[in-house]
Design a protein that fits this description.
The protein is an alpha+beta fold. It is built from 2 helices and 5 strands, in the order βαββαββ. The two termini are 26 Å apart. The radius of gyration is 13 Å and the shape is globular.
Length: 121
């Protein structure tokens, strides 16, 4: 669902890869149900079978209720990029829903990039 997003320091870019379309819809849909996003539900349904990286933005500024956990068909590679506070907030949301392994962290002056592996609890 595409919703109005405030431009600001609480916006996080999230990329998903190494996963099936249904897992992309599940993860982005789960977070998008409680945080504004530019993700369009059904955007993965294009009948492709090539390797894809799916990207969306989330506005982590609002105080929202916890996201409802979803089941994944397989492990999912996720990359988060944005202001450190916003990235850590989204990482905590993911941690409430999945077993999250932090695989790499790159910290810049004003930005944080984190690579994660999401697994079912």
């Amino acid at each position: 669902m595409v919703t109005e997003m405030a431009n600001g320091d609480m916006e996080v870019s999230m990329q998903l890869s190494d996963c099936v379309d249904e897992d992309v819809e599940a993860v982005f849909g789960m977070i998008g149900a409680v945080y504004p996003s530019d993700w369009e539900t059904g955007a993965t349904r294009q009948g492709h079978r090539e390797v894809c990286v799916w990207t969306t933005q989330f506005d982590m500024a609002p105080d929202s209720p916890p996201a409802q956990p979803v089941e994944l068909a397989q492990d999912v590679a996720a990359e988060l990029q944005g202001a450190p506070r916003a990235v850590r907030k989204l990482q905590a949301v993911l941690g409430d829903a999945f077993h999250v392994s932090e695989e790499m962290v790159v910290a810049g002056d004003q930005e944080l990039q984190v690579q994660l592996r999401l697994r079912n609890r």
